[in-house]
Every structure is written in C-alpha cells, then in structure tokens.
Specification:
- It contains 33 helices and twelve strands.
- It is an alpha/beta fold.
- The protein has five domains: 175 residues, P-loop containing nucleotide triphosphate hydrolases (Rossmann fold, 3-Layer(aba) Sandwich); 62 residues, Helicase, Ruva Protein, domain 3; 116 residues, Zinc Finger, Delta Prime, domain 3, CATH 1.20.272; 80 residues, 2-Layer Sandwich (GMP Synthetase, Chain A, domain 3), CATH 3.30.300; 25 residues, no CATH class.
- The chain has a five-stranded parallel beta sheet with strand order 2-3-4-1-5, with helices on one face. A three-stranded mixed beta sheet has the order 9-10-12.
- Strand 9 and strand 10 form a beta hairpin.
- The longest helix is centred in the middle third of the chain and has 20 residues.
- It starts with a helix and ends in a 6-residue tail after the last helix.
- The C terminus is likely disordered.
- The structure holds zinc ion.
- Zinc ion binds next to helix 4.
Length: 618
C-alpha cells in the first residue's frame, strides 16, 4: 500500500461521495439538466469533503468521456488531472488564505474573462478558505459573479460562512449555497470499514471505532490515522495498535477513575492522576475518555445503548449499573463539558483534571436525597397539586418532632410555587444562586438544595404559613415570610467539602454579580482549604491569582450567600507548579500531528486562528 489511503480513496464520482449525498445528487442532477449555477458556496467543517466535491463537479463538467448520467469517468486525462489537483488550464484551485487581497481577485477576474480551452469545457475556479478573502477582494469578485462569462463556474469553500456574510453579504444572493454535513463517528467508521475491506486489511471493530472517534468528523483524518497505524507494519488494524498510535489511554484507566469517583475516594484521585502523569498521559484525551464513559453510563442507566464505547467499557459499565443516578451523571457530564473550552487552552491540564475528579467524588448524591424522600410518607390529603413541595406532604400537622434530615426538600424550582407570597426575596442577593436552576438545571443538582439541619429546625414555624395561612396566626407576620424560603436554601456553615461541592454555585453567583473575569478565574481554580473562616483558593497562574485577588469583594459576597462564617479569601499558587509533566503532555505526538495537519499549508489561516481563537478544534 504505497499510496496514502486518504488520497487513494478520494472520491472520483458523485456516487462515491460519502455522507454528503444530498449535495452530490443535486450537483449531478444540475449538470444532467444543464442548470449549473455560476457560483457555489460549500460550507462545512473541515474534512467534510468540500474540496473533493468541488473537484468532482469540475471533473463532471470537463470529463472527456461524457456519460449519460453525467458522472465523471474518473480516468480520462482531464478527470485525472483535476482529481489530483494538478495544474489545468480550465480548473484553477486557489487558496484564499494566501491569495486574499484585491490584486489576487483582480487577477482572477481577468483570467476568468478568457474562455475555456474548448467549446465543451468549463472553467472552474475553486476558492478554498474563501472566508479569508478581504472585503475588497470580494468586491472585485462580485462584479464577475454578477455577470459571469459563459461556462465559468466559481466554487467557494469555507468553514466559516459567517465571516463571508460579515465581509461580503451580497455574495450570498449570488451563489448557490450547500451546507455539508459533519460526519458522525458512525459514518466515518462505516466508510473506514469499506476502505479496509477493499485493501484486504483486517480490522477489529473496536479499533475502527477508536479511529473514528479520534478523527472527529473528518474522513481525511481517519484515513491518515489509519495510514499511521498501518505504517507500523503488522498488516492489521488492531485495538492495541490504534491505542499505541493515538496515544490513547487504556479504557481500564478511565474505568478505574470512575470507580474512585463512585466510591468517593477523593484522596485517591491525586495518587492516581499523578501516576497517569508519570506515564505521560494526555489529559485532554483522558477528559474525553471520562466524558465518553459517563455518556455510556448515562445511556445504560436509562436503558439505552451507546455505539461509541468499547465492548470492554460497555460491559464494565453494565456491571456497575446503578452506582450513579442518571441525575448525578448528568451533573458530572455538565461539569466536564463546561470545563472543556478552558481545558484545551490551559497549561494546567493535570490540575484541572484532578480538580474535576475530586469534585465528582465530593458531589452530594441525588441518590441520598431520593433515599431520604422515599422514606417519607406521601400524604393523600395533599392539596398542593403535582408541584407541591413534598415538605408539605411530608409534614402533616403534629409531625414537627421529625428529625432535621427528614426535612430535606426537592429542588428550589419545585419549592418556588409555595413561596409565592414572599415576593421580596427576589431582590435579595441571597436569591441569586437560587435562581440559577431555571437556566441551567443540570448544573444545580437537586441535592444541593437539601436543607441543612440548622435551618430546617427553624423552618418548622413557617411550614403552615406556606400551605395554609389560616391555620397559624403567624401567617400574618410579613417579615419572616420573606426570609423563610431563602435562608434555608442558602447559608450552610463553611466547610471545605461543602465548599468544593458548591464551587460551581460560587462561580455562578460571581458571574451573576457581573464579574465575569473573576468568575472564570474561579472556575479554573480550586478551593483547597478552609480554616477559621479563611478560604484558600489554589490557582494555577499569576493571572488567575490577580484576577481573583482583585475580585475578592465579589467572591466574599458570593460565598456569604451560600455559607456562614466566611471571613476572608486568599489565593495560593501551588509551589512548583508541575511544569515538566505538563510539557510532556502537551507535546504528545498525536496532538502535534493533528494540529500540524489542521494548519498545513495555510500560514495566514494559521495566524488568523491564533489571533482570533477560532473554532479550529470544533
Ligand atoms: Zn473523465
């Protein structure tokens, strides 16, 4: 196999174009019925086949052996040259990243004025990375697109149509736009299997699934990765080889981490993560692995299936079914997903990963709350309707002697209808965290809202007021009503475990207070100690430290809405921030290769991505 797979299997006919069949069919039919547009815009993520489709279109328009169905023959000299991207008088490929200026556009315009080399041929201009063209360049092009010479077709390809809309909105009314679909792992896997079968290479299904996941929607990447695996020379695509090539973490490591979380062995997180760091683990891949496993965990808990998981992982998760409630898995997934954007850019991936796992391990479990609620009577005398807080149901008159823990109530949103009479709390700072569930339910778990014992003890007196104001004379006293629903939901005595478990809420409260920078800095940091009301926040960099130091007023205010006894907040930069292991991780070959591939041959694009922090990874 001397020819790289990605090249060898690049489609030569519309029928071979994987996934984008809607576009391929439309284009073929347009040629068949002589309704070819003057300009096309192909939008879609990288690796979805924009350039390939453009070339197949050019081949079909210029094929020397015109077939009735207007598929290109793929073999004639014209087809061969266009397919290979070699120079051709009639088909010109332009990389807008390096030819983005008005002069280039004028040049293009002049060249387009010349007729194609033969009466039955078309001139096709394929402009890649079209979003890189300047506004002036678009203006120069617009004229020719508005009144194009006969048999000239422009194909613009872009990953970012929005940028074209910003620079040259009128172009959109002059082009026929196609949005190319991102390939799913299943699409990629399917196509890989076909390719390897025709190469007579045996492949383990799990190996294909891993390659497909790593390719992240790009068939080209999937085939290049497969080439890398095959270059190891064993002639087969096995799970072990793929893992070695991609530097993937073994599933068992991920499963071991989830067990630590499930068993709440928070302290073991540190040793385990340190061990993985010693082995040169790539924490971005670890995070992806944990997220995938959690998705599997959720699907299995809900009785569904996940096709992306390895058989081993799936079996292990099925065996462990029930250790997390679906609600908890959702919360963990949410935390992992929220972390992801920071994670990729962070130089402190080990710390962030470690912190995430510790937070998982310290999560208040929904299960616990559910267990408590199950033990409660479900009063049939309840008049509160389906959303009545169970606290009401749970407290028939005269039951005030029950233990504080039995007073745990469901999430705030359910409790709200009952507290309607008290409109005042909405304006209090303490109500901010409580308002969060409305927008991000998954991040504010039900169990966090369980009433702490000390406040529950005081809630005995407000109970009848909430439900039946006629029963107790206190009902007419307005002041306590206002405070009652808020205080119990909020302030708990400050404690490191509670603080760690509610760190998200602290971050959110700071964000809601309009201190976005402070909030995101907190999100990347970890509370590590509480002593005499002094909260120590471990930060990963000076930047984070100073952001938090400058926002201590906001942090304190947020902390005080959630905890009692907060005195001070200090930041601590860990001694010897582990620079060495970090370095090793970020230099993982796979990542480096991938980035290099992504940016290959487009220095301007490369610079633009850096400067604008664009969605390259996506
Ligand atoms: Zn041909």
């Amino acid at each position: 196999m001397s020819l790289a797979l990605a090249r060898k299997y690049r489609p030569r006919r519309f029928a071979d174009v994987a996934v984008q069949t809607h576009v391929a069919t439309t284009l073929r039919s347009a040629i068949e019925h002589d309704r070819v547009a003057q300009a096309y815009l192909f939008c879609g993520p990288r690796g979805t086949g924009k350039t390939t489709l453009a070339r197949v279109l050019a081949m079909a328009l210029n094929c020397e052996k015109r077939r009735k169905d207007r598929e290109p023959c793929g073999k004639c000299l014209s087809c061969e040259r266009i397919w290979a991207g070699s120079t051709s008088l009639d088909v010109v490929e332009i990389d807008a990243a390096s030819n983005r200026g008005v002069d280039d556009a004028r040049d293009l315009r002049e060249r387009a004025m010349y007729a194609p080399t033969g009466d039955d041929r078309y001139k096709v201009y394929i402009i890649d990375e079209a979003h890189m063209l300047t506004k002036e360049a678009w203006n120069a092009l617009l004229k020719i697109i508005e009144e194009p010479p006969p048999r000239v077709v422009f194909v613009f390809a872009t990953t970012e149509p929005q940028r074209i809309a910003n620079a040259a909105a009128p172009i959109f009314s002059r082009v026929q736009r196609f949005d190319l679909r991102r390939m799913s792992p299943a699409d990629v896997r399917e196509r890989l299997a076909i390719v390897l079968e025709s190469e007579k290479v045996t492949a383990e299904p799990e190996a294909l699934a891993m390659l497909a996941r790593a390719a992240d929607g790009s068939m080209r990447d999937a085939l290049s990765l497969t080439d890398q695996v095959l270059s190891l020379g064993t002639g087969a695509v096995t799970e072990a080889l793929v893992r070695e090539t991609l530097g993937l973490v073994h599933d068992d490591e991920i499963l071991a981490l989830l067990s630590i979380v499930a068993e709440r062995r928070a302290a073991d997180v540190f040793t385990e993560v340190a061990r993985l760091a010693d082995q040169g683990a790539d924490f971005a891949l670890m995070l992806a692995g944990v997220t995938d496993a959690l998705r599997g965990e959720l699907a299995i808990a809900l009785g569904g299936t996940v096709s992306d998981l390895s058989e081993r992982t799936r079996k292990a998760l099925v065996e462990a079914k029930g250790r997390f409630s679906p609600g908890d898995v959702l919360r963990m997934l949410n935390m992992a997903v929220e972390l992801e954007p920071h994670f990729k850019r962070s130089g402190q991936q080990q710390l962030l990963f470690e912190t995430l796992l510790v937070r998982f391990a310290l999560l208040d479990r929904t299960m616990d709350l559910e267990a408590v609620l199950r033990g409660l009577p479900t009063g049939g005398h309840d008049s509160g309707g389906p959303i009545a807080p169970s606290r009401e149901r749970a407290e028939p008159p005269g039951s005030s002697a029950e233990s504080p823990s039995q007073r745990a109530i469901p999430p705030a949103p359910e409790a709200k209808p009952a507290s309607k009479p008290a409109s005042k709390p909405a304006s209090k700072p303490a109500s901010k965290p409580a308002s969060k569930p409305a927008s991000t339910p998954a991040s504010t778990p039900a169990s966090k809202r369980a009433r702490p014992p000390e406040s529950a003890a005081g809630s005995g007196s407000d109970r009848p007021r909430l439900r039946d104001s006629g029963r107790v004379s206190e009902a007419v006293t307005p002041a306590p009503i206002a405070d009652a629903p808020i205080v119990p939901l909020a302030a708990q005595p400050l404690d490191i475990n509670r603080l760690a478990a509610r760190w998200d809420d602290v971050v959110e409260a700071v964000r809601l207070a309009g201190r976005g920078v402070v909030a995101s800095s907190l999100a990347e940091s970890t509370p590590t100690a509480v002593s005499n009301g002094v909260v120590t926040v471990q930060v990963a960099s000076e930047t984070l430290a100073s952001a938090i130091d400058n926002g201590t007023d906001a942090v304190l205010a947020a902390l005080r809405t959630l905890f009692t006894g907060v005195q001070q907040v200090v930041t601590a930069r860990p001694e010897g921030v582990p620079a060495a292991p970090m370095k090793r991780m970020t230099e993982t070959e796979v990542i480096a290769n991938r980035v290099a591939t992504l940016r290959k041959g487009a220095p301007l694009l490369d610079a633009a991505f850096d400067a604008l922090d664009l969605r390259l990874i996506d």
